[in-house]
Please model this.
Amino acid sequence: MVSKRFVFKRLLLLVPVLFGVATVVFAILHLAPGDPATTIAGRRASPEQLQQVREELGLNLPLWQQYLNFLWDVAHLDFGQSYSISRGQPVRSVIFDRLPITLELAFYGQLLGILIGIPLGILSAVKQDTLTDHATRIGALTGISVPIFWSGPLLILLFATFLGVLPTSGRIATAYFLPDHWVLFGQELPLTGMITVDTLLLGNLDAFVSAVRHLFLPAMVIGIYSTALISRMMRSSMLEVVRQDYMRTARAKGQGSKITLMKHGFRNALIPVVTIIGIQFGTLLGGAVLTETVFGINGMGLTIVTAIGALDFPVVQGTVLTFALLFTLVNLFVDVTYGYLDPRIEQ
Model:
């Protein structure tokens, strides 16, 4: 059981991390070329119009005052309004609309990595230096080496163009229309924004199948790298654990090899693997930028690319800070999992 004191200490450590990220984001965007006032008012705007926009945005204030105002707004989850990609719409609404899309994609990619990578790593460790081990290691090395911008179009050509069994882009077929709420015990509740979850809540199995078919390829693309990394780490960690004295002692007492491996070795071998899974989930959120661009999925990744091109600074700030918050929360979850797997870590 993980103590509340341990969790509280980890939560306190998140504050300076988020403060540092917010400072870096503010500094980078203010050093970047381009004028937000020109982006909003247009290139043909008069100097008076530009000055008015700057006053409305607070860009005419001293830099230190802009920084303090920025930190105050961030603390209240107020990232301002979008300049161009969703003009006039609060950035918070843009994030709430598109964050579930990226989270869903990253979750399924990571799930594929865990379900395939961990068994492959264990199998490779048990069958060390055999043909199975060599094949698994070569496959893992290939998966780590293949970039998303290459594997994505390749899988589209294979499954969509040549075989014609999966769609090339989007999240669901255009024939399906989803309402903005679902009903539970007579109460209207908002949908989650995750297409597979929402179709199940609505009880539309045909739409669910369509959503799964659309998400399979992008989840596979970002899951390939995760599978390869997890399997390699699981193999190395398991090989280290099986050589420990307590494993040999359990075998000497007459316990079967499979029981010894899963009861005594697996839990201890998971500790470094959990670290990789946590870090990799944060990486998948960033990797969704390429995946969403290739497959035409309008999530946070595609949003931040579009916002950077349009000099939509509030959207860029909001998305980067959201990614940083998610990454720190994942690290918190990893730390809590450490305490569950090995209670000595809390000490």
Summary: The chain is about 75% helix and 0% strand. The longest strand covers residues 181-184. The first helix runs from residue 4 to 31. The chain has a mean pLDDT of 79.
